[in-house]
């Protein structure tokens, strides 16, 4: 293990020096996981907001199931999706198995419950605070969903980042539906698994550190963008409209 | 809306502020306890009605029932035509700018973008917020936040304004600025229904007093008469500070 | 210039291998379901670029255990199957999932274990005797336990040794349920014996205290075969390109490429296409 720092530096150097293969892997990892998070957020956030504001029958059961699904085993998701997408499966003719699209779908399935459950719990607190005021102003429950999503954006960004963390670190599902095919579906985690199975533990660990570094950079980038994006927007654009300063 | 509740215009064609807010057979229970039980109630048209009573008498609940935030178990509430607004003890401002908070209310009221922006700018500068329009609303002081909530509630020119202890947590200066807004709203024809725990405030602002005791109306009448000599036992106990809710 | 030579070589190679006329349209990529040993040893990285350069056909390799590779191919999730479990491969063809099976190459299995060889495996006369020594000493043994080609070979050797480990809970016999590399990592970590194919072993980077303690018995022979997935069963199969790959692999160009491949400076696969 004394070679670790050296391996880490060489893995980092491969990235910084623009090693094509490694860069392609890093970029594919980001594409797949960010794509999955975007899809999961588009489904999970409105779902979470809806559960926060409405009282449909079986709401407690839905929330319990959602919370349980946060711990969905990636391998099971991968396997289920494999059976669907396999050429012998019902969606076989789409020829999606062993493609990045399949990997995005698998991670989106994993991440949607996380984003939905975290959104629900965050927006429920906000709804407790806003409910009477919004109703008094004449807004319906469903009409309140976009308001909650907009005003709860700080918490929702955190939910999305939690989902991203889960997606980018996940290996079981993308390995099965992606196949870890070189130059096609190989991402950071499957590369790490492959290098581990080759016994290149130092390189695997170094790639793992690079993965952590990338996840950290994404978090930093999102929190910077999130801080700017959290400032009120809209009417400020109009001529003499007020200047918008950064919000909390 | 509960089918039992009818918000109807009592005097179609008449002036809105001359209409009475009228209640019949209103019942509301919570946790197996009857919290509000009012057989008959009509509030004076226009002016400021002060809802008084001990803690737990049902004042806030009555306000929410009248405003439609809480649905009654039974009974009818007939309100004059027009928009209603409400301001709460703790101002609920959106996590947006001062400007956006007012803009939001007008947008829900269905006012078009250009007119909305013009009104918001006009309101903000009239009330001294002109230079802070872009500031996050929640960075204002507590008193300023409540004042903004008042301005937002009044921005839609409500027929009725419900106030639930709007100055309970404010200092004297902020309280008097809120009271000034209330007076000016009442002058412009908005019917104000306000809960307060401060008899001095009730004296200063009230035209009419409604004393609630255990969810029922203990006394109702002109404020001057109530403070000169309450007719009910509860009213006398309230004024000498010995009205409690017996267990 | 070099490209031109490569092209000429490619064409002549293709002719020699009896390739059909050049493929009509833009060649489609093929998916090969194969085993971890071929991938982890670096064989595919070593020979596939040459094939793609000569034919224009990109090859995508899914490397899993032989058992899983066969099941994936049976589902039609691949065009070509390249694994090492001859009876299973023949059953695969028999069941109509694949067309003809062809030998490609071989190498051998070796028994690796801790250098101090506490079970005395080095002294064994043949492979079954070596396993008997491990069982009698109760020395830790890491088994793939994953229905892979190597696992099947290991089970056959235990049967030949008259042992049936893993039937009851035995502390010394550990089924990892994982790939060859993961199993070797575990064996290195707990100083256990393990059966591995030589190619994976030579390329493996985390040998730790492990060494080859037994090798050379003909029973340790490890044959790889290649099969085209039956396009009548799975119409999606890129049969033309898949057949081109099989013809190349079993023809002189591919066989030469396999023979020339080195892992850590050693030849680890020996071409033997008929």
Description:
The complex is a heterotrimer of chains A (248), B (247) and C (274). By secondary structure, chain A is mainly α. Chain A has ten helices and no strands. The longest helix of chain A is centred in the middle third of the chain and has 38 residues, at 100-137. Chain A is globular. Chain B is globular and about 50 Å long. Chain B has a six-stranded mixed beta sheet, with helices on both faces. With 247 residues, chain B is α/β, with parallel strands linked by helices. In chain B, a hairpin with a 2-residue loop joins strand 8 (208-213) and strand 9. Helices cover 41% and strands 23% of the residues of chain C. In chain C, strands 1, 2, 3, 4, 5, 6, 7, 8, 9 and 12 form a ten-stranded mixed beta sheet that branches. Chain C has a two-stranded antiparallel sheet with strand order 10-11. In chain C, helix 1 crosses helix 3 (43-55) and helix 6 (127-137) crosses helix 7. Chains in contact: A-B, A-C. Chain A binds chain B through residues 129-130, 132-133, 135-139, 143, 147, 151, 231-232, 234-236, 238, 240-248, and chain B through 64, 67-69, 83-86, 88, 92, 94-100, 103-105, 108-109, 117, 120-121, 133-136, 138-139. Chain A: It comes from Profundibacterium mesophilum KAUST100406-0324. Chain A: One of its GO terms (biological process) is transmembrane transport. Chain A: It is found in: Cell membrane.
